[in-house]
Design a protein that fits this description.
heterodimer; A: 197 residues; 7-stranded mixed beta sheet; B: Aconitase, domain 3; 16 helices; 16% strand; globular; metal ion binding (chain B)
Chain lengths: 197, 470
Amino acid sequence: MDKFTTHTGVGVPLKRSNVDTDQIIPAVYLKRVTRSGFEDGLFAAWRNDPDFVLNQDIYQDGTVLVAGPDFGTGSSREHAVWALQNYGFKVVISSRFADIFRGNSGKAGLVAAQVDEKVVQRLWDYLDDNPGGRITVDLEAQTVSSADGSVIDSFDIDPYTKWRLLNGFDDIGITLSHEADIESYESTRPAWKPATL
Amino acid sequence: MGRTLSEKVWDEHVVRSTPGEPDLLYIDLHLIHEVTSPQAFDGLRLAGRTMRRPDLTLATEDHNVPTVDWDKPIADPVSRTQVETLRKNAAEFGVRLHPLGDENQGIVHVVGPQLGLTQPGMTIVCGDSHTSTHGAFGAIAFGIGTSEVEHVLATQTLPQAKPRTMAVTVNGSLPAGVTAKDLILTLISKTGTGGGQGYIVEYRGQAIRELSMEGRMTVCNMSIEWGAKAGLIGPDETTFAYIQDKPEAPKGADWDAAVAHWRTLVTDDDAVFDQEIVLDAAEVTPFVTWGTNPGQGAPLGASVPNPADFADEQDRVAAEKALTYMGLEAGTPLREIKVDTVFIGSCTNGRIEDLRLAAETIKGHKVAEGTRLLVVPGSVKVRLQAQEEGLDQVFIEAGAEWRGAGCSMCLGMNPDTLAPGERSASTSNRNFEGRQGKGGRTHLVSVPVAAATAVRGTLSAPADLEPAFA
């Protein structure tokens, strides 16, 4: 996984609440067996609408999605994170993320920055006044800020995920370094626990 | 201080605990299906890693599989590739797989319990959010993403921050004809889709105790729809009786040892939950959704709400968008909504008791003109059991389509989809925009409401039906 320290990019306002993972990428787009190419399914139902934000030229190079509350609810599909990343997004900002989506983001290297609802509104106001405006997300300092300085505020992310993202650490590698603990735990499991083979 | 059930199960699975880091949890059972696993197996291969415990892993084919002609090659080449990839991966890594045609093929959350692999006090994960279903047995069970699937394949563990605890206490008894589905839809309409976020929820109280195991699975299944990390129910005699004759249940002395342990899996009297919600079962009535998330629901006897009546602005905007998408007018009685397709099935309501209840409602009636009814068993075993009981004949005589096992129209990854603008009453778990097919409109309902709706062609309860001819 690549290290993430700070990122500045075009902010994209997604003024909807409860954007579930079926909206982020519908199930029919989940049939690939690779990790790439999912951008074609991103927000598929809305991409035919010329008014949809991603269809506006000024947001073509968007990398920071600013979304309403309860983003990423529903299905556990990590494809939702991959679709956002494959499209070019580095960060999603929202006042509330569904747990599984937030977990998947942390594993895949997409920053899910949780801010107060008022901060989302102020970022939307900033983007309304400055379409194509840029937003900086500083992971070390845990801040989000608008290019014109009108918004600067903190965001929440769990410290462990932050540490892994800053260092680009592979989760599995970390766990495998504790293999002795796993072996010792396994030696204590009751014999009646079920096995599939 | 005492501990809650979920804290006990959690503590029993901690491999490693360090301040400032998530606990490393051991995983007792890892369930796998074709959609969320291919990239995880690829990741193992790329990193040159092996699979730690194939013997604690079970795979089945469910999301993509056709529910007709399942003995022929899958027509959609992309779906076929995904299913074939699962077969190759299972063979390469030595994972037990129940493929199409096998008696234990079916929806992964129906298969685990029917095999007896789902047991109290376990940790169970799967790359599917409805893994919460298994919590009905007193297990901590939750959905994970593909990176986490890879993590479990490689290590049989997962780093997890400890969630807070919540109790949902349902006092009293559910009225006759009101089901577990109505109860959970009622709860979600009160909490919204984010109300359970960050919590492991324990469902308790008289109404929960009175539910069968399959009803309990319906409740726990939809924990994710109000954002909970997991939902579980304390194991009791109902639980033990359900497991006892299952193929993978402990036998002999192992059974006695297991049950003795399972009896300790109760929330202590002096344990404190971080949060509690109390519901009165007697107030629950047949409940349906009118919107595009599972929290947008109302009693069947109500009307489509007026968005202007929502105090919260975000709720109002969401309701407006939902009514536009659903093609509904505020004030329309829900019972007057005409439905094109009724879907009975899914990991929420695709088990044998669901099919019995559906058959009981529909027996002697015909599916309404202009309405189609799809009955999709959750597994091949459920299908065979239903046929043994003659339920298939009840459905076929009523004019329903009796299908093969799988996820089917719950998410429409196979050919079972809604056309744009088509409206369904569905016993599944999600009414998201386009979930059952692009432009499709979904009303989530219980099994009796689904069956009565198929007969009348409009959202209905069994009480609305004319007496059937004997």
